[in-house]
Design a protein that fits this description.
Blueprint lengths: L1 H15 L2 H21 L2 H4 L5 H19 L1 H9 L1 H6 L5 H21 L2 H10 L4 H26 L5 H17 L3 H8 L4 H8 L3 H8 L6 H27 L1
Helix pairs in contact: 1-7, 2-4, 4-9, 4-10, 7-9, 7-14, 9-10, 9-13, 9-14
């Protein structure tokens, strides 16, 4: 655990030591406000809640989270510093977990900085704070799922652009599986059991369930299992490359 914490601190400090982190957070906050108040029709709805923000959050994460994860291992491989990291007296699991947790913490900080939206709806009305808290928790889990996928893909290539594009595509597929148009298209020719199985892998469905204010154990198991699987695969990929 000591080595994991050391890597976590090193990576997290690395994010904030460059202007990229501040540019990323600024873009995220700007888009969050734009989608909530303009595209989401916040004032036209006449309801004091953050539903417009959390409806758009998965689409924001679809592009912004892979932008965080693309550098996790691709940059290390491109600069050749991954060899130095892998010669340290730490396990591959510790290295993967430390870098992932740092990226996850950075994404969580960016999400928490949207708290002025929460203050705004509290001033304008009497929102259900329990639902908002659950939605933020769901957003953090959502970001963790995307980051685990992006981290795994980043380990496969030295090119950050390739890592970004592939991460967006894979994450989009995980969102696509429960969208109404897709479900309607598959419903006509696919067995209902298989259809339910496909729907169960949808980030969107699990996130929407949490944003209703009820954190179901099944949703926690889904995100926890998915994150564990992709981090395990991430470590396995690095072990294979290290052996070669």
């Amino acid at each position: 655990m000591k080595h994991t914490i050391t890597i976590f601190k090193r990576e997290l400090v690395g994010y904030f030591s460059t202007p990229v982190a501040y540019v990323f957070i600024s873009v995220f906050l700007f888009l969050a406000g734009l989608f909530t108040f303009n595209l989401g029709g916040f004032f036209e709805r006449g309801q004091a809640d953050l539903r417009p923000f959390f409806d758009f959050l998965p689409w924001l994460f679809l592009f912004l989270v892979p932008a965080i994860s693309m550098r996790l291992w691709a940059e290390e491989r491109r600069q050749g510093t991954i060899e130095l990291l892998l010669t340290l007296p730490i396990s591959m699991t510790q290295a993967v977990l430390g870098k992932f947790l740092a990226a996850w913490a950075f994404a969580a900080v960016a999400l928490m900085l949207t708290f002025p939206l929460w203050i705004t709806v509290s001033v304008l009305g009497d929102p259900d704070h329990g639902v908002i808290i659950a939605s933020y928790a769901g957003g953090i889990l959502f970001a963790g799922g995307f980051l685990s996928i992006g981290s795994c893909i980043s380990a496969l290539t030295k090119n950050q652009v390739v890592a970004f594009v592939l991460s967006v595509v894979v994450c989009f597929l995980f969102m696509l599986t429960s969208l109404p148009p897709v479900m309607s298209m598959l419903n006509g020719w696919m067995d209902p059991v298989l259809l339910d199985a496909i729907r169960s892998f949808s980030f969107w469905a699990h996130f929407q369930s949490i944003t209703k204010g009820v954190i179901d154990v099944r949703d926690l198991i889904f995100f926890g299992s998915l994150i564990t699987f992709f981090l395990f695969t991430n470590a396995l990929v690095l072990d294979i490359k290290k052996a070669n």
